[in-house]
Design brief:
Helix content: 25-40%
Number of strands: 23
Distance between the termini: 45 Å
Structural class: alpha+beta
CATH superfamily of the largest domain: ATP-grasp fold, B domain
Radius of gyration: 21 Å
Oligomer: single chain
Largest sheet: 6 strands, antiparallel
Number of domains: 4
Bound molecules: adenosine monophosphate, glycine
Length: 423
């Protein structure tokens, strides 16, 4: 089978590596890929937001199966466009992708089906939003409803700040069209975890629970990022808690989708806050998490590409799945300054592959420049991923490679996994 992977991040590099190990994949190519993906697969430039260009490319290259990594093409209906010409693609269709593309749509869905989530209300008019703030307690959470690359969520400490944020989003165009509707919701306290499901209608497979580290600084301080590191399985999701999540969140979500006539096929990532009152939905994503993918795919004994292909085909069989009895950790190495301003173009030196024992170097923001040198090309540059018998060993292995990676603006958090490792 000839597979096309769409995207250019760490998630897509992990998916390409899984393709190389898959029995069902004969050849893998990527659009647009990155510096690391280009060492593993042929990469072609292309605008992944242009459905007709991608469809023509897939036809021209005689692609059998497309795996769509990021949310933008999913929300743009790329899977629908490929389906129209008979090319099987992994990922939800445009209607189903609204679960990520519109936080207001999702809040209405969660409320309709009584699925636990923070109390919230959506606004398009600044006056109404500001009078609603007069009745609220602080801190409060303000979210741009549309896609904002993980940056559209602000926790406002007081009314003054909240008014400014709402005004900036609705009038000041802070997040462009994504902020033309805002969701104001109650602040929830607790520990976060993510549940990743491969869903095909009513059938689903749950991958190990994971925990991301969204803040840039150690001890979870500073600005929100796309994710600075993750590990799985996250033991904070005990079997009892998972049962509760299944009963109160997963089952009513899949039933609700069916009831609304939404045929969901693809990844459903559920961001959960574990509060004193139980698990509560923070967000849905309709694609694999980045960097969570880097720890989830290596934990699968079963071929993840086969699971994705079966899912897209409507033949997913949940009993077939085997998970390794191991732990995985990914430490993201970023360019200093991320998530604000940072330099690109730093030359990167990596340790030799044959010195890596159960460690994968996953590329995110890298490229090979005109001189053939590997250089930094984004905020999150690399994800050092280790698989080991337990989380302590995974951390030791991942951090020993982090120390050996060299580039000028290198920055990484030293405390990935801290919540579980302290116990
Ligand atoms: P989201 O993209 O909706 O998951 O939000 C990004 C991050 O903002 C989450 O991972 C949480 O850390 C935080 N967050 C979102 N909603 C809430 C909430 N209602 N209460 C507290 N923190 C939140
Ligand atoms: N790491 C969180 C996300 O992919 O949205």
């Amino acid at each position: 089978m000839k597979v096309l992977v769409i995207g250019s991040g760490g998630r897509e590099h992990s998916i390409v590596k899984a393709c190389l190990q898959s029995q069902i994949v004969g050849e893998v190519i990527a659009v647009p890929g990155n510096g690391g993906i280009s060492q593993d697969a042929l990469c072609y430039s292309g605008d992944i937001a242009d459905n007709s260009a991608i469809v023509s490319f897939a036809q021209e290259k005689k692609i059998d199966f497309v795996i769509v990594g990021p949310e933008i093409p999913l929300c743009n209906g790329l899977v629908d466009a490929l389906d129209e010409v008979g090319i099987i693609a992994y990922g939800p269709n445009k209607v189903a992708a609204q679960l990520e593309g519109s936080k207001s749509f999702t809040k209405r869905f969660l409320q309709k089906y009584n699925i636990p989530t923070a109390l919230g209300k959506s606004f398009t008019e600044v006056k109404e939003a500001i009078s609603y703030l007069d009745t609220q307690k602080f801190p409060i959470v303000i979210k741009a409803s549309g896609l904002a690359a993980g940056k559209g969520v602000i926790i406002a400490q007081d009314k003054n700040e909240a008014q400014k944020v709402v005004t900036n989003m609705l009038i000041g165009n802070a997040f462009g069209a994504s902020g033309s509707e805002v969701l104001i919701e109650k602040f929830l306290d607790g520990e976060e975890a993510s549940i990743t499901l491969i869903v095909s209608g009513k059938n689903f497979i749950n991958l190990p629970a994971s925990q991301d580290h969204k803040r840039i600084g150690e001890g979870d301080s500073g600005l929100n990022t796309g994710g600075m590191g993750a590990y799985a399985p996250a033991k904070v999701v005990t079997p009892e808690l998972f049962q509760k999540i299944k009963e109160k969140i997963i089952t009513p979500t899949l039933d609700g989708l069916q009831n609304d006539g939404i045929d969901f096929k693809g990844t459903l990532y559920i961001g959960i806050m574990i509060t004193n009152d139980g698990p509560s939905v923070l967000e849905f994503n309709v694609r694999f998490g980045d960097p969570e993918t880097q720890v989830l795919l290596p934990l699968l004994e079963t071929d993840p590409i086969k699971l994705m292909h079966d899912c897209a085909n409507g033949t997913l069989n949940p009993v077939d799945v085997k998970i390794k009895d191991k732990s995985a950790m990914v430490v993201v190495i970023a360019a200093n300054g991320y998530p604000e301003n940072y330099l690109k173009g730093d030359e990167i030196n990596l340790p030799d592959d044959d010195t890596l024992d159960n460690v994968q170097i996953i590329h995110a923001g890298t490229k090979v420049n005109e001189q053939g040198k590997l250089v930094t090309n984004g905020g999150r540059v690399l994800g050092i991923t280790a698989l080991a018998d337990n989380l302590e060993e995974a951390a030791t292995a991942a951090y020993s490679v982090c120390e050996k990676v060299e580039f000028n603006s290198k920055y990484f958090r030293k405390d990935i996994g801290h919540r579980q490792l302290k116990n």
